[in-house]
Design brief:
Blueprint lengths: L2 E6 L6 H10 L10 H11 L6 E7 L5 E9 L5 H10 L1 H8 L2 E9 L8 H12 L4 E7 L3 H9 L3 E7 L8 E7 L9
Parallel strand pairs: 4-5
Antiparallel strand pairs: 1-2, 2-3, 3-4, 5-7, 6-7
Bound molecules: coenzyme A.
The site of coenzyme A has 20 residues, from strand 4, helix 5 and helix 6.
């Protein structure tokens, strides 16, 4: 199965992307999210500065096999402000300021262990402009943890609380070295 990665925008036809995202998060430990929850989330995050969405499609059939998206972290955003509070001012300055948030990554169950997630994340990190990227992942997501550890991410906070009713999340970080810049 060969695949190709291309950008998507929330204003385009996102139904097949949302279908792949839903399939990817269908099994435990992921909590249930409806298709309309995902569509609403994508429409909202699509308005954030620096939004980038990427989909991997089967080159033969056009089927969406995987998706990822993220945006630039800025004060005032819900996720960014909670992570800043947990990190404290110094780590916020060092790690969170001038960073990208990888918000979602999913590969459909039928297409796993073929390097699709690795290719999607590599492309996302290359396209975004910041020297580091952060993400949060449910602390009990052992598959996600194995993937991120295998692909250069490190945990900077374990079992963070986003508030009452939320499961614990680990915060992970990936440095990004953009070619053509001396400090990155
Ligand atoms: C995590 C996920 C995105 C990985 O997608 P994938 O396309 O199968 O991953 P890749 O094929 O690119 O894997 C790259 C490497 O990560 C590691 N890895 C990936 N899945 C793994 C697993 N289930 N167990 C152990 N290691 C794993 C391996 O080292 C793998 O290399 P290898 O296959 O040569 O051994 C996919 O399992 C998924 O969509 N899970 C549900 C959603 C989710 O948890 N998303 C991440 C948190 S937001």
């Amino acid at each position: 199965m060969s695949f190709a990665i291309a950008p998507f925008t929330p204003a385009g036809d996102v139904k097949p992307i949302i279908a792949a995202w839903k399939d990817a998060f269908s099994d435990p430990p992921h909590s249930y999210r409806s298709t309309s929850d995902l569509a609403d989330q994508l429409a909202w995050h699509g308005t954030f500065p620096g939004f980038i969405g990427l989909a991997a499609r089967d080159e033969a059939t056009g089927t969406v096999l995987g998706m990822t998206y993220g945006f630039s972290n800025h004060p005032g955003q819900w996720w960014r402000d909670r992570v800043a509070e947990a990190l404290g001012p110094q780590q916020t300055r060092e790690l969170l300021d001038d960073s990208f948030c990888l918000m979602e990554l999913g590969v459909i169950r039928a297409a796993r262990r073929r390097g699709i997630a690795q290719a999607l994340v590599a492309e996302l990190l290359a396209r975004q402009p910041h020297p580091r990227a952060l993400l949060s992942m449910q602390s009990d997501n052992l598959t996600g943890l194995a993937f991120y550890r295998a692909t250069g991410w490190r945990t900077i906070l374990e079992k963070m609380s986003f508030g009452v009713g939320f499961l614990p999340y680990d915060i992970m970080l990936h440095e990004v070295y953009h070619s053509g810049t001396s400090s990155r």
